Amino acid sequence: MENMEQTMQAILDRNARVEREKAWEVSWTRRLSITVLTYLIVSFFLWQLGLPYPFFQSLIPSGAYLLSTLSLPWIKRRWMKRFGSER
Questions:
Q1: Could you please report the per-residue DSSP string of 19-72?
Q2: CA 32, CA 74: separation in Å to the nearest integer?
Q3: Rounded to a whole number, what is the largest CA-CA distance in the chain?
Q4: Mind listing the pLDDT tens digit for each residue in 16-71?
Q5: Pair 43, 54: CB distance under 8 Å
Q6: Which of 73, 61, 59 is nearest to 28 (CA)?
Q7: How many structural domains is the chain composed of?
Q8: Using CA of residue 33, residue 36, residue 42, residue 44, what is the dihedral sign?
Q9: What is the C-alpha separation between 20 and 76, in angstroms, rounded?
Q10: How far apart are CA 47 and CA 40, in angstroms?
Q11: What residue numbers bound the domain in which 12 lies?
């Protein structure tokens, strides 16, 4: 009986961890952190290459990343409606 309780607690602990990880994956903190890091890294490389307006040009890839994260939930919902029930 004690083994079954330990197993159940292990499953509940795992589910809680998975829920926290999923919350992190869709959080604005994660999205903005990646956007800022992308901007800084691309700015540095463009600046090192001596290209004009590196800080302005770095907005393109970082902005594209942020826009892609905004559109993916909408695309995912459509995909789930179409293919989710088949699996």
A1: HHHHHHHT-HHHHHHHHHHHHHHHHHHHHHTT-SSHHHHTHHHHHHHHHHHHHH
A2: 19
A3: 70
A4: 999 999 999 889 999 999 999 999 999 999 999 999 999 999 999 999 999 988 88
A5: yes
A6: 73
A7: 1
A8: negative
A9: 20
A10: 10
A11: 2-86
CB-CB neighbours of 15 under 10 Å: 10
Q: Which amino acid is at 18?
A: V
Report the half-sphere exposure of 39 (CA within 13 A, side-chain side).
14
The token pair at 12 is 């509940």
Q: How far apart are CA 17 and CA 23, in angstroms?
A: 10
Amino acid found at 85: S
